Amino acid sequence: MSVLPDRISNQDEISYYEDKTWVQCEAPGCLKWRLVTGADLDQDKPWFCNMNPDTLFSHCSVPQGAFPNESHLQKHGLKMVYSLMPVGSFVLVNARCWPRWPAILCPDPNEEEYARLGSDGYVEYYHVEFLGKPHTRYWAAAKYVEPYSIPFKKPHYRTLRGAIKKSYEVAMEEATKVKEMGCQERLEMCHFRPQELLAQAQTLMHSIDRMLKQSPDQTESQVKITD
Questions:
Q1: For residues 214 and 216, what is the distance between their CA atoms, to the nearest angstrom?
Q2: Which residue intervals define the domain CW-type in the entry (predicted)?
Q3: How far is CA 138 from CA 22, 117, 135, 192, in A?
């Protein structure tokens, strides 16, 4: 995720965030986000806290800095830019009044796309398939979608009741297996795959075609019986 100028406004605010990027430490026990200058990044290599030129945040033991409020950034002519995650990624989706729910980034069966880009070319929405019973799908704003982190633990949500609570429990059970899979393997377990819908439609058309072809024969046999 990056913070980029959107229009000329408060110069002090812009100069602070300009050419800087939020980057996540890849140490399994850390996964904290740090704000660094773009010049200090090599996107083809893993990044860890000890590579941060800012010595105040160059160790995994240092707490993560607070993310700026997006509405505050917009007021000062800045915007959040979210990195495009690959299809098949395992993520957590933050939705209002719900716990962070595990999901898979997968193509919309109607559009066959898994991400919607804005006019500036950056991702704005992801199509996700939520784990649970049953699986459901949704187009979620990119700002509410984050990579599934290994230290994530199942929280206790007393507000969940009945079928929703059961679905969440099933989702967390599935998550223990899904997080070990590769992207392609995750896509193969998705319920809303375009190729499956196409196959179902073709099967239905073949069945209808057989019924239509059988109808004249059945009519003829009925006539003979009547005679």
A1: 6
A2: 16-68
A3: 26, 16, 10, 11
